[in-house]
């Protein structure tokens, strides 16, 4: 990082927390609006997620009997912090200055923290529904984690580097990975949908079966923070998939003035994350919730199988590439 | 079972069990004694294939309590087996062993009319709330909601 | 996945829900709304209070002479309806010989005093 | 996980109305359950004995919100039979139209709720949007979307003007087209198939033995339909046929209900097109002669039985209402054992429970896990031992 001021701005203002907060609320609104319009409903106004966040923040915080208050307050904050730091390594207007060799693994690890926090919350709140919800959250984590990581690591395998920014650079020179590894792209999208516990995979908080799963006892600011975490991880997840498979914010041919390239890069970033969001929303609208044992069969048979096949193809292509 | 079942053929064979009357085109009503109800239903089930219990209705006609078992079968005929029980000690052998759904209706009739079904596996209170006075049976004619008792949260004022 | 095709058609078409305060839903002719009593036609026969299932119509004395089927009657009583207890079933309107009591198209509104009466 | 008691309590997002399950589950598998109803018991039968025939009909309509016309028509046709008065053909046709419109709006409502219970909210929104066409027709004809109050002893309260008939006919083509899309959607949509197929399977013998009625029974291949077995109103004249299915599981019940929608559309179109002219009411006497009748009616959820006894006054001496949901509760209890917790809402919704009907008279499932009372398997063992040739 050159000088501390631009570093601070990078971390806190522009592609950092403030932008992430606003963009997350916008994406949450867009997600609900697309789903509503697909069901021929009008849908919420653009500030609805922000209004929800403020309202829930103001609500009274109820501690269930016999619950360790401190941990119950701290857990959502841990999840929020994890997701926010994950966003710093994802390139927004060009390469992220904080990039280092292996930041892809860090981002993936930070993204899976909220699920563990959900399990902890479920177990902590001493309520039968949240306990079952917590167990389901962790079971689902084991099912989709392996294929999701494999799908996201195959671009790194082909690009030969473990840093998200360098993968984006590699794609700038050659093809985007969505054309090179289509199966990996599909598995990544399905894994992302499962990580965010959205419609086909929202088994942990299946409201018609176990009230709200781990979310049952969350009230007031805890609920607001956890909701925000899920919205943030939607942004981080779709930005990550956009960066790894759709070429991120860089354009193949260079343009003279540096600041213009930054703006175009940012616009590209927006367009690509919105494209990923459109796909995720339509998955959410088109499907119904599946049971945890069905997820087990589908998860291990098809999704894991597909990601292993993808890794195989990438190894073969690497082998040919090196000797071609 | 020679040929399709006709009301008079059914009436003929069931004459042994009690008074028969033809209520409507396809309906027969048999009035029998309480202890003969069980095997009346048995013969009707086995010989004439009445495999479905429509309902067990109970009524209080002032003098005595009446129970009517309505059964129907694939031939679309309805047989109603009626039985009369005296008011003081209304008791009946249960029919849950030959009609599983009967367990449901018997427990409800027991709550509302106080007819005891001997042999019903679990005569738990089902319909009225827990603090309902045990010996009061609301649907009997002589029961009136007396104003000062509390019926599950509502004062018993006259409707 | 026939659902997909219809979903994307809906995405581009107008939503079907009506934003109530701005656009109003048309009220059909037979709608049973707020009760209204035409005092000039009422002959005080108290049929409506007998027929009312919720027993909210009480007859209060209201002497008046009324012209009914050519004859001139001096009626003694007229109906009074507890507005917020009325279930708007329309039986009074159906059984009133003089067509005095009808259900309008407006809603009966809401209020705290359950004994509010419409005469 | 040790055996855990999960209270799917009276207030639960999956249940539209208050019913209480105490599920004893081992992990995700349900081991035993105890079901308890009567949370909105209102003593309708006692109240009905104190109202004369004009004032009792609105009360009976309020036994249930969704099948209000069923209760009123079953009662009215029972009393008319005791009084031996025949209602004019136009009134019969109007009652059939309202009955079938009520079946359509009840089935569409159920399809939406079933989709919502497995999280498929899109179908929920679409079915309830199409249901509005049925509700608008009902509101135009009777003045109210739910309690139509169209019945009277001796006929119908208000007539159908030609404009109402044409407005209703104008809505039918769109409804038919939408219902056809739902029929193939139910058969081909993977999201529904994966959650409905094989869940809560009832064989034909089990369905008969547990006394199930309506679409739940017809999905297991039993062709009982009171409109065909004991024809009333205009069902003998309208061209329609009984819908049965062989699957027996929730998927089968969905198919039966959706195809019944098509049949109802046919009946409504037939009745609207040849609505006979003539009066809509016959003056009915004030008192009914002494007598009793079992009036059977095919409500949207199954066969509804009103046992009515009159004693010569203008009030009913006894009315015993056995609603379809009550008859179906046993099959729910039997289907739920050793299923997943995730399947509870689906299986419960499959019989389309209408608790306000049932709560007027209630049921508790006959397996309780209290000490001293036999459990479910013991009940079956005793049942089998008593009549080996039966099972």
Work out the count of structural domains of chain D. Answer: 1
Number of helices of chain D: 15
Low-confidence stretches of chain A: none
Sheet with the most strands: spatial strand order of chain D: 1-2-3
**Shape field of chain A:** globular
Q: What is the radius of gyration of chain D computed over CA atoms, rounded to a whole number of angstroms?
A: 21 Å
| Number of E-state strands of chain A | 0
By CATH, the architecture of chain D is named Orthogonal Bundle
What labels describe this entry?
heterotetramer, A: 324 residues, mainly alpha, 12 helices, 0% strand, globular, C: 119 residues, alpha+beta, Alpha-Beta Plaits, 3-stranded antiparallel beta sheet, two-stranded antiparallel sheet, 3 helices, 5 strands
Write a concise synopsis of the structure shown.
The complex is a heterotetramer of chains A (324), B (159), C (119) and D (391). Chain A is mainly α and 324 residues long.
Written description of the protein model:
The complex is a heterotetramer of chains A (324), B (159), C (119) and D (391). In chain A, 72% of the residues lie in helices and 0% in strands. By secondary structure, chain A is mainly alpha-helical. Chain B has a single domain, classed as NADH:ubiquinone oxidoreductase Nqo5 subunit (Beta Polymerase, domain 2), CATH 3.30.460.80. Chain B is built from 3 helices and 9 strands, in the order H-E-E-H-E-E-E-E-H-E-E-E. Chain C has helices at residues 2-12, 47-51, 91-95, and strands at residues 35-37, 57-68, 71-82, 101-103, 117-118. Chain C is elongated and about 70 Å long. The mean pLDDT of chain C is 87. In chain D, strands 1-2-3 form a 3-stranded antiparallel β-sheet, with no helix packed on it. In chain D, strands 6-7-8 form a 3-stranded antiparallel β-sheet. A two-stranded antiparallel sheet of chain D has the order 4-5. In chain D, helix 2 (53-61) runs antiparallel to helix 3, helix 4 packs antiparallel against helix 5 (121-142) and helix 7 (190-196) packs across helix 11 (250-273).
